[in-house]
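Hey, I was hoping to borrow your eyes for a little while. I'm sending you its amino acid sequence along with the backbone structure tokens. Take your time with it, there's no hurry, and the full record follows here.
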Amino acid sequence: MSTRRIVEDVYPYFTMQAAQYPVALRHTVARVCCALAFAATCMGAFAQQGARTERMPSVTVSAKANPNPVEKSYRKMLKGMDIFQQQYAISPNTELRFKLLPRKTGTDMNTITLAVIGDTVDFVVPIDINHTFALPRNALALLEDAQVVPNRRALSMTWRTDIRTPGLPPDTRRLGDLRLECKVGMEAGLISNSRSLIGGLVGALFDTPAYCDKPAPQYLFFADRPLFSVTLLAGERRQVLSIDKLYANASDDASLHDTLPYCDCEVLVDRTYVLPLGDRTWPDDTLVLFEYMDVE
């Protein structure tokens, strides 16, 4: 069967499966409460579109009361930032940003607010229109082992790094950037799978950045739109990724219905791909070319 035929058969199936998880009803109350808690302090930050850090009033304590937040460790995220600085040569002329992504159908990504919250310190982190943000360093937040807390509940969204070389052609990424994305993401603890083993989907234990140096790590990247194909290009060498490197290797997974809710790719399967990050025959300047299903 041709790759295009497989894609055309699989893609509607993924869409149908994702629709079975009505997150909107289950999380409406939590969203409203958290949104009200953040709203007053965040409006100014978003209006300014600035990178400056702002103090949050005591009302943010309600975010701590969220019984099941999709929070991340501030300390671990700073360790990821350290990896970016230490291995900057892999991806020169770039900046590190973190990216927020939906995990459930119905997750509203346009009204997310984000704060760093410790015992005595709390401040808003502005989010850009493309759902990325830069995390400021704060000595007190580090000392207090603060958490990075969005106004969303666990399993409703996920996190990745976003490192992009400027000036690349459209629908193109650079392999060195993606290698560093993996290393930073691993160190920062951004993967939000709720099982360490998910059948054959993402069956590796994500422990350290060294995992990214394996020849074929199952670190899931997410493209900007649903994928048709991914091609590696280095000089005259060109290789189209096989279909088992796309869609979280779930195109022939009979247990997809049962395993997909445990993967943070749940509503992003059609955008998912993995790369031969540890195969050094592909240099850092290798281009990663995307062909999307919805050709623009």
